[in-house]
Amino acid sequence: MRSMPNYKRAKSGATYFFTVVTHERRRILCLEQSRAVLRWVIRNVQLEYPFTIEAFVLLPDHLHCIWTFPKGDTDYSKRWGMIKKEFTKQVRNDIERLLGEDHLTESRIKHREAGIWQRRFWEHLIRDQNDFNRHCDYIHYNPVKHGLVSQPSEWAYSSFHRFVKAGKYAPEWCAPVDVESQADFGE
Length: 187
Description:
187 residues; alpha+beta; Alpha-Beta Plaits; four-stranded antiparallel beta sheet; globular
């Protein structure tokens, strides 16, 4: 089975699961430019406010990830705010052309989402190894759950492939997870 990062809890920060969704579930995140900008923005935020991405999946209208923070630092709100703000700044003109300019209300611009992100995100503190495994399974099964592919290995925008290389999943893994209980995953 997959294992949490090799660290002792007493020496490291907390690990959290996140769900972040686009405004009105607009299907923009898997566009080539969006993927490149999001990757660049996340890396830049990591340089200023470090965190480790343990697992990740990018879908057209939302993403799920698990982050581990340095000891004594769990300011995920600052990090997500920076990611959302900079992503919006970088892709706003392209998204405006794609979606039409009338969706960008003053209220949303004032709040820095500019019609691209939902204002809030879902977070969950990972409690133990079982919780970590369950959330990794959910992340990697998510493209199948949403009907985008029939196997996790078919989805390119996921840490599933890294987990396979590390021997944490078999390449053909596709065990459905409990998708009935959405409350635990923020969708």
